[in-house]
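Q: I'm writing a short methods note and want an example of a predicted protein-small molecule complex. Could you take the sequence and the SMILES for zinc ion and return the bound structure as tokens? Please keep the output block clean; save any remarks for afterwards.
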Amino acid sequence: MFLHACPERTEAERSESRRPLRPRPGPVEILRFGERYADVRDRRLADTLVVEDAAEENEELQALERTSCHVHRRWAHECVHSPVHVIVVTGHRWCRSCEAEASVAVDEVSGSVEVICTRCRRTPDTAATRQIIRTCRASLAAALESRRSHEVRHGSAA
Ligand SMILES: [Zn+2]
Ligand SMILES: [Zn+2]
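A: Understood, no commentary inside the block.
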């Protein structure tokens, strides 16, 4: 596979574990992963799904660090409510002291994301909770940006 050389990138940046992914997939990635998302109407979401699928396969991105969901083909914050996203072993959407599910409250206006145990009503203080908050905030921001650019492109005829 050919990768573009990027001479201006410093050694420090290269070794950074969480460098940002490219916003748009290359032709090889579209060929490999694009078909699954051909009917996704939000093109930025489709691009993100392809980029993250490719990054995950290349072991550049952990499944739980994704801002788009491979299972539901949605932004992370849109389907985090699904039972599929309760992972007892890792503590994702799970309160260990209660052994109960946690719910995620996403405020699309303020951009706030809260994880709250359905039993004790507290936020599980775990790396998994922080990861949910981080990824959902990022996906929320991306979705809002996508919506705004869509409005700019198509204008509001009304
Ligand atoms: Zn999902
Ligand atoms: Zn609890």
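A: Remarks, as requested: The first helix runs from residue 11 to 15. Residues 95, 97-98, 100, 117, 119-120, 122 surround zinc ion (ligand 2) (CB under 6 Å).
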